[in-house]
User: Which sequence fits this backbone?
C-alpha cells in the first residue's frame, strides 16, 4: 500500500499534551485514546477543530453519554454496547461512527466478537439507527510471534474483503481495517490494514520513556 492509503492513529494515551501538540504542528490529525475520561481531558487540552480523536479502548455502557467527541470508536465489542450507543445517539440526534472489534485470536483475555459472529452482527446492525459501522478492528497478543500474528491479520483481512463484496445494511460499510500497533503494524499493513494504531514507536525517546 502507498503511505497515503494508510491512516496512522497516533496513540497518545501516555503522551504529554505538549508532545501531541508538536505532532499536530507537524501536520498530524488522527490521535487515539484508550480511556473515555482521559481522552476527553486530552481533547480539551489539545485544541484543534480539524483533529480526529479515536477511542480505541473498551467502552463501559455507563460511559456512552460521554463519547460523542470521538470521531471513530474502534472498540464496539458486544451487542449490549451497540444498542446502548444507538439508543443514546438517536436521542441526541447524532450517529456514532464505529468499528466492530473482532477477537480474531479467540483469546478469552481479549474483548471482541468471534470471527464467525461478524456476519450476523453486521446484519443485525441494520436495526441500529444511531450507528454507522465503518469496518473491523482487532488487537492481537503481543507475545504471539510473527507467524501467528500474520495469520491472524490475514484471516481478518480476508473477512474484511469478503464483507466488502456483500450486500450490507445501509449503515454498514467496510471502509477501515484497523489492525497493528507499534510492534506489528508492518505485518498488519502487509496483510491489508489501512489503519494502524501506533503509540510508543512515535512518542517514546531513546530512553524508552514517553515524552
Assistant:
Amino acid at each position: 500500500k502507498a503511505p497515503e492509503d494508510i491512516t496512522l492513529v497516533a496513540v497518545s494515551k501516555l503522551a504529554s499534551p505538549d508532545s501531541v501538540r508538536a505532532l499536530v504542528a507537524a501536520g498530524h490529525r488522527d490521535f487515539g485514546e484508550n480511556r473515555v475520561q482521559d481522552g476527553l481531558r486530552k481533547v480539551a487540552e489539545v485544541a484543534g477543530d480539524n483533529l480526529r480523536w479515536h477511542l480505541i479502548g473498551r467502552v463501559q455502557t455507563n460511559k456512552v453519554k460521554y463519547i460523542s467527541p470521538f470521531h471513530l470508536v474502534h472498540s464496539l465489542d458486544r451487542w449490549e454496547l451497540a444498542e446502548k450507543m444507538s439508543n443514546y445517539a438517536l436521542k441526541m440526534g447524532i450517529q456514532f461512527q464505529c468499528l466492530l472489534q473482532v477477537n480474531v485470536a479467540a483469546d478469552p483475555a481479549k474483548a471482541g466478537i468471534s470471527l464467525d459472529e461478524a456476519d450476523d452482527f453486521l446484519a443485525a446492525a441494520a436495526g441500529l439507527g444511531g450507528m454507522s459501522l465503518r469496518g473491523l478492528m482487532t488487537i492481537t497478543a503481543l507475545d504471539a510471534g510473527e507467524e501467528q500474528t500474520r495469520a491472524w491479520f490475514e484471516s481478518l483481512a480476508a473477512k474484511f474483503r469478503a464483507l466488502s463484496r456483500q450486500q450490507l445494511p445501509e449503515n454498514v460499510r467496510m471502509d477501515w481495517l484497523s489492525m497493528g500497533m507499534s510492534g506489528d503494524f508492518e505485518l498488519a499493513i502487509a496483510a491489508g490494514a489501512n489503519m494502524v494504531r501506533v503509540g510508543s514507536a512515535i512518542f517514546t525517546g531513546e530512553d524508552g520513556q514517553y515524552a
Q: What stands out?
A: The mean pLDDT is 93.
